[in-house]
Write the structure tokens for this entry.
Amino acid sequence: MSTYENAFRGIPGYIHEAMVSAYVQDAMYTPMPADTLKGTITPWLKETGQAAFYRQIAQADQRYTDEIEPLYESMTVPTLIIWGAEDEWIPIGKGRELRRKIPHADFRSIPNAGHLVQEDQPATLLAYLARYLIDNENAI
């Protein structure tokens, strides 16, 4: 993607909007309501947002994760990993693998949720977070 970042910046606005819309919706398990989609993509639509969108994608690189992975085993803070069970961007197996690498981490999967868990299943996400914070209030 980084090779084509400049070419993507020159895409006409209406095509860019369709691409960003499709990209965001692909992160969902359930259809995103139109008003939520509009609010989510609006920051990416003007000239600065369009450039930032493609720059962000171009900079996504597994090597950044690989660089810090050896540090996971030294983590001592309470850690909760929450993953959308139907995440097609980063499959749930990666979340389980992450859980194995962080000592004493808790892992929760949320059914009927994709990558954007906070949009697909906000009540379940909030319940998991609240319970974890209550259970770990003295450790955090």
About this structure: The beta strands are 80-84, 106-110. Residues 2-59 form one domain. The radius of gyration is 18 Å. The mean pLDDT is 93.
